[in-house]
Amino acid sequence: MKKKLTAVALVVCMLAIMLVGASLAYFTDKDEAENVFTVGNIDIVLTEPQWVEVGSKEALEAYPGEALAKDPTVTNEGANPCLVRVKVEWPTDPAVVGDWNYRNENYVIDAVNEGWYAAEDGYIYYLKPLATDEVTAKPAFSAVVVPTSLTNDFSDTEYKIPVYAEAVQAQGAQPSWSAVKG
User: What span, in angstroms and rounded, lies between the C-alpha atoms of 94 and 92?
Assistant: First the structure.
């Protein structure tokens, strides 16, 4: 019985050695592929030319209901097309919350300029990819309107209305490169 067990163990060991030897002989050649890629580059600049020239001066003595020139415009200075959105951060004074708004170039309150879309998520989206070295055709909106609820009681309060611009590389956000180029 002991001899049979030893014989079986010997046969199993021989089979294992043959399998290892055969697989080593099978894997004697190799090759490799090197895939080089780079990450895209987007770099946007947000400007407000009319705010600098006109709106910031008028804002020093604004009156209730006045429309102050504020025109967020985005330029793509990166190497790749991008999708752009902007967001306005309205002042949070409880006395005037909900009364702040913007208007488009046609003086329509809470409306954006052509080529932009005001979504329910609070962002204003540019409707097409912004190519390299391209500037948005129009600003997102043309003015901010001072709330009519701001009276002399608020004359010592300074309000800030920051606008933020964000961008994402268009190639990853569109279904195909041809959709971006189109």
Answer: 6
